[in-house]
Amino acid sequence: MISTRRPTARLPRQRMLPAMLALVLAGAAAPVSQLAAAPAPLAAPAPVAVPPAESGVRVHRASLKELGALFPLQLRGVDGTSGVAFSVRNDEVVIGAKLKLNYSYSPALLTNLSHIKVLVNEQVAATIPVTTQQAGENLQREITIPPRLITEFNRLNLQLIGHYTMECEDPLHSSLWANIGNDSVLELTVAPVAQTNDLALLPQPFFDRRDVRPLELPIVFSAAPNAGTLQAAGTMSSWFGALAGFRGAKFPSLIGELPARGNAVVMVAGRAQAPAGLALPEISGPTVAVVSHPGDRNGKLLLVMGRDDAELAVAAKALAIGSSALSGPLARITEVTELKPRKPYDAPNWLASDRPVKFGELAEAQALNVSGYSPDLIRVNFFLPPDLFGWRQKGIPVDLRYRYTPRPNADKSTLNINVNQQFLRSLPLRAVNHEEQGTLDRWFTKVMPAGETVPEREKLHIPLFKLPAQSQLQMHYYYDVVKQGACKDVPLDNVRGSVEADSTIDISGFPHFIAMPDLAAFGNAGFPFTRMADLSESAVVMPDRPGVQELGTYLGLMGLMGRVTGFPALGVTVAQAQQVDRLGDKDLLVISSGGGNQPLLKQWASAIPAALQGDAKSFQLADLAQRMLRWWGFEDESGTRAHRSQVAFSSSSTDAFIAGFESPLRSGRSVVLVASNQPAGLAQVMDALLDADAVTKVQGSTTVIRGKQVDSLVAEKNYHVGQLGPLLYAQWYLSRNPLLLILLGVSASVLVAIIMYLSLRARARARLKQQKKG
């Protein structure tokens, strides 16, 4: 149960025209509802003067690539359209917008008939003429977009209206093209909109799903945090990390002070003194509240409070799993109960391991439908457990059901299936059968009528090696346009295609078994910690006397775990080196920032393939010279790069590394060490793990990070986690140890020979005895 105190009044959020904003920015006292009721002017509104910086006005810039256009936009044909989606935060309103466009177009376009339209939400914002003098050049143009066209969720489209002749033309002629660079920038000038202090708005304004930028949310501790406070803070950062998803999230930490401006989360346990300038409400139990930032009229603070660590944990848990039920500026939590414990591999973001998963669970219905002769890809994103064992299996089975407009005649139209931009399969699109049915066909049609709604169906397999933990299945309808001759090439825009929501992908037949250490599994999927979605079998070992950099790294790593699983880290344990002996049943995430603040580095030095102590550094390196010996079974894994040499040196640079190894406390458990010779180096690790390109280089058992350079030094895999059936394990083990297989074969042959020899000797003796008796 949750007791709440509701606000006396709550202002609804309104989107206002720029002319109305002038009153707000000038400090008008009229409420928003009254301003919204004023009639809109018939003429175009006058430009709004940009208020001073202290008013909270900001400028957001994002390239089309950051908005989702991975490649330049290609506009083809007489009416080619492409674009991106963008959105505006709930607590902001746009008062100015510009599009800084990089583009080029075909020299064949006729100036008086062709142009490029810029559309926002299907309304024309600007028209760009195509002149003969600039044709084929790389051009730049700044376009002003009227703010009145922009709402919360928006679509920016570029449309080419192209013609190359005054006579009959081919609407898909190769000379009809324009190219829009994905480095073009959309610039939005926004002003803040006043928000009420209401828990019902959560997770806004601390996280807004409309905002595609990476989340940066400071977490403030009223005093130096202990293990219990850090566990509650980890719950909060993993919750926000799950909400941020693909955007990524960072959580700078502060102790005893608030950020100068913006939103923040404040953790208060016991009778700790409030950060300067903040007045705390009375704490009589687990309490959560939203208050205004005392130093920023546009900022909000989320207070998570308790009289002790246990109550603080309850308050954080209530926010992470029950925020949608809260309301009012302040809520005192009376009870939070988990109805069902978590199970391995049941993370909300991961494909279910016990049943086929429908595409409708992975993508919205509208994303599974396309139209037109040049449709966009149908994309289905999914997350796999990284320890699926697919030895001697075809791959992951997919039961694909799809519909499309039948082709008028047999042609080369296909449905192309890719996974992570790698070609997988091509399915032909059939034509309408115009032939008259025979007597037998008509009889079958009467007995078993052809269902018009029955989709096409194809069963296929995706090779497991093509699938990293985070994957995307891509389906593209390609239509072959048959040339009919001059003045006849006018294709009807009536083609449609879709993938059925009840198509399935199934990983239930795969066991979980993986060679470790594997930093790729950690970097991409947080494995092995995310095996339990709530991290209940994981522990974080903090350095002695952690500072704000170490705390921020811990919070950032918890955010990464939440991003992978889609669930807050409610069960993570936080400890220090002195308490590690009681953590033998957990996988350990160890943080170190140099200066001797992590005693485990000395205790486990023989297992760690790198060492950083101030300016003194040493790294173990791999060597492939012994590959043949490993193939013949003298080492555990074929193809791995075991450490063969070591380099030690001294330098003043800031270096960091990630290392994985088997836990010295218990076999089968794992340790991942995140270490640097200076606290600032830990930020480099977080930057690498949040960078989509850099994280692909985090591999093997040791990865060194120096600024933006990421290198994998060792890929030694010396233990396995997971479980196989007895027969499958025996087959797999013998396949990895050919010498043992040969010895077993020879031994079996010798044993069979001995048995046959003894059997034949026994028969010979029996025959001799019978002969003597005779």
Brief description of this entry?
The protein is an alpha+beta fold and 774 residues long. The protein contains 12 helices and 41 strands.
General description of the model:
Helix content is 19%, strand content 31%. It has 774 residues and is an alpha+beta fold. It folds into six domains: 2-40, no CATH class; 55-192, Sandwich (Jelly Rolls); 199-333, Chitobiase/beta-hexosaminidase domain 2-like (Chitobiase, domain 2, 2-Layer Sandwich); 357-484 and 494-505, Galactose-binding domain-like (Jelly Rolls, Sandwich); 532-541 and 565-722, no CATH class; 737-773. Strands 1-19-17-18-16-13-15 form a seven-stranded mixed sheet. The chain has a seven-stranded mixed sheet with strand order 32-31-33-38-37-39-40. Helix 3 runs parallel beside helix 4, helix 3 (227-244) crosses helix 7 (548-565) and helix 7 packs parallel to helix 10 (681-690). The longest helix has 36 residues, at 738-773. It is found in: Cell inner membrane. Pfam families: BcsB.
